[in-house]
# Entry
Amino acid sequence: MKRVYVNENWCLGCRLCEYHCAFAESRQKDMARALRGVKINPAIRIEANNGISFAVSCRHCKQPLCVKACITGALHITNGIITADKARCVGCYTCILSCPFGAISQNETGVIQKCELCTASHGSPACVKGCPNNALVYEERE
# Structure
């Protein structure tokens, strides 16, 4: 299955992937209008440590602890992609606590959010398309 991978040697820490992610989630046509004056809350985020920047997003694990931990069944696996049913999420955050990668967060309404590989847009993930240095790739690996 294809996943988003990061090459931390190429990541500039520019955070454009975060903006492209937030823009894709907005489902609007103009990025400037969609994100102007808005505090973005993307499903991917850049972390920096000792001069190394890298993107953190859902790894879509084969045996995901987050799905096991979800008490309401809001997290489920569809075609290898872990998706969240925000209507079923009660905000208990057991999935956040159980994710070993720190890839799940809460959104502004108190329910969880995570990378779903832009499944709503039926293309490659917006973060990958928007990375100016090709530090993010969407590919299948062993």
